[in-house]
Design brief:
This protein is mostly beta strands. The chain is built from 3 helices and 18 strands. Helix 1 (218-229) crosses helix 3 (253-265).
Length: 279
């Protein structure tokens, strides 16, 4: 609604008076304090200013010109600053850290580690809180809004036994399997990936390369990973003894040659008399 203060969001409010400790803004029903440390260098009475509204440590509604890393109804990858008997506090860019109750944690959260959370306004307390149980805040869809091969935005946020769990387009959970990841991914930063499969439960299998490329089987992926780990060169080739290949990869020479062929067709490697190298 217009002319209604929105906690946890940016508001465009009018400056109504100046006091020694800051400015008071028109909060429609109440006056809202903008503390002195957040007052801009130049301003005028009756001027409008964009501020973020939240509750301070004494539970008072207050304004700030600082910008949090996310607002309510958004996801964010944040670091834990403190653990208390009631929950954890995460750094999100404001003087007051963001609270995650123990009931909203799916695992024990530790100081110094970062987690993906969903920020929301608690209906009972009217306070801004966050939840690490992010999947319950995603829309319930069967994944039909996606098509295999689609290029999407993904935020990597958690290692699992299978690979790296990602938030896709802020609406779905996807998985980059271990044998699909050949580069360092920065958790919390958006990256482009491709939809490789849509599961019956609506979750997504992801790939870092376009699905339209020549399919590379698991043998080829292992070979490619080994080349990258060895500074771009592998001292094996299609004439190498089968025992040397098996010792390094635990695969037959036939499977090795099949994998090398797939990589060559995908224009990922160059073949030499005594080695294989990255293009």
């Amino acid at each position: 609604m217009e002319n209604e203060l929105k906690i946890g969001e940016y508001n465009h409010l009018r400056i109504i008076k100046e006091v020694p400790f800051g400015l008071y803004l028109d909060g429609y029903e109440d006056e809202i304090l903008l503390p002195l440390q957040y007052v801009p260098e130049t301003y005028e009475i009756d001027q409008f200013i964009d501020v973020f509204i939240y509750r301070d440590s004494e539970d008072r509604i207050i304004a700030t010109t600082l910008k949090p890393k996310a607002t309510i109804d958004q996801f964010a990858y944040l670091e834990v600053k403190a653990v208390t008997p009631l929950g954890v506090f995460m750094e999100w860019g404001l003087a007051k850290d963001l609270f995650v109750p123990f009931s909203q944690q799916f695992q024990k959260m530790s100081v110094g580690r970062s987690y993906l959370v969903y920020i929301y306004l608690d209906g009972q307390t009217d306070r801004i809180v966050a939840s690490a149980r992010v999947e319950k805040f995603l829309p319930l869809t069967d994944g039909s809004e996606f098509t295999i091969g689609d290029k999407v935005d993904a935020i990597p946020f958690e290692h699992t036994d299978l690979g790296i769990k990602c938030l896709v387009n802020n609406c779905k959970i996807g998985m980059l399997f271990k044998n699909q990841v050949f580069t360092n991914l920065t958790f919390g930063e958006s990256t482009s990936v491709y939809i490789a499969n849509i599961r019956p439960d609506g979750k997504l299998d992801l790939r870092l390369e376009a699905v339209g490329m020549v399919r590379i089987d698991s043998q080829a992926e292992r070979i490619l990973a080994a080349i990258k780990e060895n500074n771009g060169v592998l001292m094996l080739h299609d004439k190498s003894p089968a025992e040397d290949i098996y010792q390094q990869f635990g695969m037959s020479k036939k499977d090795f040659k099949k994998g090398v062929g797939a990589l060559y067709k995908s224009k990922l490697i160059a073949l030499h008399n005594d080695c294989i190298s990255l293009l």
